[in-house]
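Lecture 7 notes: from sequence to structure.
We start with the chain below.
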Amino acid sequence: FMDWWLVEKLVSSRTIAFFVIGDAQTGLGHVYRVLTLSDRLTHHELVFFAPPEADLAIQLLQERGHRVRVVPQNQFGEALQEVKPALVINDCLDTSEDFVRSVRVCGARVLHFEDLGPGALLADRTINALYGEDAERGAEASSIVSGTSWCCLRDEFLDPPAPVRKTLQRVLLVFGGSDPSGLTRKVLQVVDASPDGRLEFQLSDS
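Predicted structure tokens for the same chain:
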């Protein structure tokens, strides 16, 4: 029975290619999502690609034991010809049509995360959980789904929730790696203006 199980795993195994970004400006949310997905795709052959500027993503993937092929984004489609994947997962923000067309040449299915660029319409599926339901683009974008129901939760959220404290001691504000809307500052201003708010904040750029 074990032999049959091994044969079934080998027959069903596919090559999946990831293209991911991650640096001081964009943060590490993209690469952590890729790692979460890879932890659940262990019976497939996984190949990781990242552009040269994605230094933090490359470092984190290598620390987790993955080999990373460093290629510029405009050369990714060409690099896929050697790999011949069944699925390509792009977690690199807003893509162009030219980029996606170059990826599709290899014949693989294409999945995007957090993509508001024109290339999102050319992917087989685009998941924009972060942007909310208003990120959908009508009938022409039937392949685009959005909203919290599509959120990819990391393993730490599977643990039982921490008990509710009656006394507020610490506040953790998390608005992604870059916080483009300046939500951190807005929340700090609201808390600072509260009459009974005596909270000490320590800002970090990590």
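Points to note: The mean pLDDT is 85. DSSP finds six helices and seven strands in the chain.
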